[in-house]
Amino acid sequence: MEVEILRSKLHRATVTQTELNYAGSVTVDEDLMDAAGLFEYEKVQIVNINNGVRFETYAIKGSRGSGTICLNGAAARCAQTGDKVIIIAYARATPQEAKDFKPTIVLLDDKNKAV
């Protein structure tokens, strides 16, 4: 048996842009992806703190140091620029692995810098 656990998250990221006419995904500053251990094209869940909407998409790299959090395609309908979101990645683990696992949690300020 395996369980699904929190692997990493970017907590309280600020949406900097939305692009409705895009194929899909969330663009994330590559520095933030590295800090959270997110992989390009990895499936992520996004939770909008402002309106409670939860959805899944995949992450793509944005310019390093830009602070970019851009919701693309249909995801652009789920938030507005300035909304606070949590970007979450999960992993599967055996109960024994999960027992001792500690996720990577990156808390962000209003400019999407790690605090």
Structure summarized in a few sentences:
This protein is mainly beta and 115 residues long.
Write the layout of secondary structure elements.
Blueprint: E1 3-14, E2 17-19, E3 25-29, H1 30-36, E4 43-48, E5 54-62, E6 69-72, E7 84-93, H2 95-100, E8 104-107
Parallel strand pairs: 1-8, 2-6, 3-5
Antiparallel strand pairs: 1-7, 3-6, 4-5, 4-7
Characterization of this structure:
The protein is mainly beta. It has one domain (3-107): Barwin-like endoglucanases (Beta Barrel). The chain is 11% helix and 46% strand. It has an eight-stranded mixed sheet with strand order 2-6-3-5-4-7-1-8.
- Mean pLDDT score: 97
* Uncertain runs: none
Distance between termini? Answer: 36 Å
Shape: globular
Beta content: over 45%
The number of E-state strands comes to 8
Integer count of domains: 1
Number of helices: 2
The top-level CATH class is Mainly Beta
Main structural class: mainly beta
CATH architecture: Beta Barrel
Stated plainly, the CATH topology is called Barwin-like endoglucanases
Helix % is: 10-25%
Name its key features:
115 residues; mainly beta; Barwin-like endoglucanases; eight-stranded mixed sheet; 2 helices; globular
